[in-house]
Specification:
Helix content: 55-70%
Order of helices and strands: HHHHHHHHHH
Mean pLDDT: 78
Strand content: under 5%
Structural class: mainly alpha
Shape: globular
Number of domains: 2
Low-confidence stretches: 1-24, 26-42, 45-52
Largest sheet: none
Amino acid sequence: MSSNIIADHRAGAPLIFRLLGILLILVTPCLAGESHEEQAADQSKNTAGLETPDPPMPALTAMESKNSADDSDAARGDLPPAAAAPPIKKVPRQGVRWGGVLSQSMLFLSVEQGYRLGTQPGTREALKGPFFEDWFESVKATHGWDDGDDFLANYIGHPMQGSVTAFIFAQNDPKGIRQEFAWTSGYWNSRLKATAWSAVYSTQFELGIFSEASIGNVGHFGKSESGYVDLVMTPLAGLGWQVGEDALDKYLIQRIESWTKNRVVLILARGFLNPTRSFANVMRIKVPWHRDTRPGIWGRNRPAPDRSQ
């Protein structure tokens, strides 16, 4: 209803001005006529009763007659109303597409947990106990920094996991999907929001209902250790990994694209130099080398090389 009121208000303002103008046109001749009659009366008094007949009014032309008829119609309210201004269309607020964020994150989680169940006999064995009791005990056993994993898992693997989930969020955020590396508030705000989602995903992966604590009982007394290292390193180092891939994409991969049309080189450059972005692309059922900021590499959509550099 508010949009209709605004539209009616904007359409009504010109109509009011038109009516005031027509009223002014109609009143002005009347005022001029009264002034002319007063001057004639004064003149007749001064000339001692000598009166001269008023000159006959000239005949109206066809155009003047039409205008006069229009003015009469306007005074009676017979004119059609002024054309209404087009209704104001409210642009829908483009927020984060949470359906895409959740579905793609769940697909990623399924891949990770499926890999654990398929390759770790101890994880499969731990499913035999009481699910909720073992899960709660595993969560309560989380303490300290270290979790017993090696450097590669804690400081390379988990930051990459954080970067994948951050890219999943960014590719479903209208304000972040086309952001390229830059020292601007728009870029960093989009990446910090993605980092917040990465922290949520990491917490669920470590301690949630579909987590290492519930599926495999990581941290359960006597089975394995569980610390805070992954809860911290996954989102924070994941931010650094994501920003690093953004910088590589802008300053190296795009330069390679300007040098060559070779599809194999372009696929390798986009895919292997941005591994976590490539994985996030697969989670939304797109080719790993997909980019939202520029065309693909097949047919007419592939980037043309820039020989000027």
